[in-house]
Amino acid sequence: MTTLEFTNVTKIYNVRGSGQIKALDDVSFTLESRKTIGLVGQSGSGKSTIAKILTQLEVPTRGEVLLDGAPIRRSGKGLRRYRQQLRMVFQDPFASLNPYHSIRHHIERPLRLDKVVPRDQVDDEVRRLLDRVRLDPDAILERRPHELSGGQRQRVAIARALASRPALLVADEPVSMLDVSIRLGVLNLLADLQREEGLGMLYITHDLATARHFSDEILVLNQGRVVERGPADDVILHPKDPYTRELRAASPDPEEFFRTASAQAAASTHSLGGMR
Amino acid sequence: MPDPLLSIRDFSVVYDVDPPVRAVSNVDIEIQRGEIVGLAGESGSGKTTLAYGVQRLLKPPAVITSGSVVFHDESGEDIDLHSLNAEQMRRFRWDRISMVFQGAMNALNPVATIGSQLDDVFVVHRPGMNRRQRRDAVAELLDIVKVGAARARSYPHELSGGMRQRVMIAMALALHPQLMVMDEPTTALDVLVQREILKQISQLRREFGFSVVFITHDLPLLLEISDRIAIMREGKIVEFATAQQIWTDPQHEYTRSLLRSFPRLTGEKSVVVR
To answer: At B70, is the pLDDT very low, low, confident or very high (cuts 50, 70, 90)?
Structure first.
């Protein structure tokens, strides 16, 4: 059981010329094994700042991040151990894989750096990880990222994140750049892995539909502040905060749309403007 | 009462590589004046190739192997696109059919102001306009798409993604085309900006009466904004019906599987197995 506490974190950026920008304002949540927190909000709401602080790319201005009750070291072995515990899956699977290197290299590297398994077992472990993400090791090991589809690339990125056997995974829009028909497969893979490995997951997205299906708890972020939080269904189906309502209203929802359309029987020429 | 704007018959495109790829096969589709047609399908289904092919924007190795495209102009004249020569085609494009390209936000020239890029459209297609008329027209366009005339002197990097996308829409509107083809125009934007832009497209359509072909793989979105939806798979249109019919009574198995593949915002929670 691993617990990560994000307590009263405020992050202020000094911007040349225009003073200070408060990217996060007193944000708190607890990420723990076997639990998924969905983090939703529009561009600029502070989602990525949270991810940056979690990965220690940025340091909070106020507040702290505790792993199992202890503050995180900012350098050396302590930082390394922390990063081994918490891994990240990025949005763009093309940009996050090195085009010059084979898939084998991508998965081997964290195994060697973190000495996850003895040297002579590295090859077996690479294969096991690719199996885990439902990729055929023989077909894929020696390929380069450009030879794979977007969905396959994202699976490689997930296998790489799992290599150091983390307890927590931060997934920043992991499916938004994939085809709709492939998204579901990758989301279901993440859900399976979470169940089987007992991962704690932070799912960052602006897609309310997948956030609802994928998360236990949802946090809605607006201009750096958590404006609403609660069990996924409560937040999405019965939003209380005006901003959450606005997000919900802007998300495509054919079910609701056709219910309203048939209610208005005059559905002969429904137009964009009549959407909501 | 059908009032066709564009009739595409038996249209096929082959990528002449080894082995040849049939990207679009024998597509028949008719777009009515003033309607929004959604074109859905996964990557590689041929939706972009079809849209480009119709306007003969494809480059080798793509070859149009069969078919005809007839544009029924509002003047009453029928224009067979394949009989136009290069110069006539150049003048036809943008004037009658304009496009908002995929990743359009990044299609703007980074070292030119957006005003000068809009100005270019008039310089090329409306040589009769003088400098002052062009400046007024550019200002009006920027106001229409709610970027604001004051931003004419901004460079693309000074605008947000949503604003750059609006500039691209302004550019597509410039010559009052009868058809706008939009290829994934809002995919990279967040939901609030996306919704705002969609509302604006709809409002502009009501005002100017153009038709829209909206290409995307986002079926939930298409269901809400389209009058009719064409589902494309492996170069063929497997189903073409009103949005309502696609939603309530899909005929093709592939359409059904597409509908099943997206998580519902408020509906059943069965798709993601947790």
So the answer is: very high
